[in-house]
């Protein structure tokens, strides 16, 4: 006589794991707004953990060592950012009157005045694009002027959102500081506890954990160091050539480097300068390709590829795909997922392929 498949034991297990999955899902939703801050804390903790271990040995107190490490890291990270931010604000302040005049001309539907406020290379570009659409019987100027009110309203909305982002950034900075303290103090124990919950053989867990840790450290340290170096070197080139807003453009170069190519900023700047001064334009072109670009091809394979023990081209595509799929978090999640996959492939080859 066959027993009913849904015994009490089966029902208890289904309920337990179903409730467990729902709780985990709700916890993910609960912590989702803080993912960026928590990921930043994890990055900083991984980068500076060797220094933190020295603090623990020197101070003989986990709490005191975590507090001193957190304060030290924040000072190292915050002070340079405050200096760069000051230059950034000072430079962008020069753009405010131009932007205000632009919006005023837009509201008065004054196209000649509007066009005269644009930089020279944009005036030529606007004229060229307008002629293309004119041949297609499309009046771009009239379309822009007809939507002037909507554009002004959108600018106001963007300004309001920018203020909200500043408040969110301050909140995330507070969360990052708290998370960094606990990452230094309890990170190692938390990692061991997490591994203990994974239903795998101990040696397999160590393989996956080691590979993920190596990839995480390689991507974080390598990408940030390369981006910082390219931003600083590009800023020096902009200063030598007398380019306006060198700090803003240097920060833009660093951000483009994080996404995989600094040329998105340096090359257009060099071509723009070439319109006004051929010599300085050629200098910036050589500087952006031969110096800034060379850092990307020289530092990243050394700092990332060799540390992560996988081809750099695979890391590059995992970063790009991760950013496209997960946003900014994909910068780390992409390579970590690939590293996890390669670890499982290795385990399969060692344990299951022969069977």
Q: Which keywords apply here?
A:
globular; single chain; mainly alpha
Q: Can you count the beta strands? A: 0
Global structural class: mainly alpha
Largest sheet: none
Q: How much helix is in the residues?
A: over 70%
Low-confidence stretches: none
What's the helix and strand layout?
Layout: H1 8-31, H2 35-59, H3 62-93, H4 95-107, H5 111-116, H6 120-135, H7 140-146, H8 148-197, H9 202-241, H10 246-258, H11 263-276, H12 278-308, H13 312-326, H14 330-351
Helix pairs in contact: 2-3, 2-8, 3-8, 9-10, 9-12, 9-14, 10-11, 11-12, 13-14
Summarize the entry for a quick read.
With 355 residues, the protein is mainly α.
General description of the model:
With 355 residues, the protein is an all-alpha fold. The chain has helices at residues 8-31, 35-59, 62-93, 95-107, 111-116, 120-135, 140-146, 148-197, 202-241, 246-258, 263-276, 278-308, 312-326, 330-351. The longest helix has 50 residues, at 148-197. It starts with 7 loop residues before the first helix and ends with a helix. The mean pLDDT is 76.
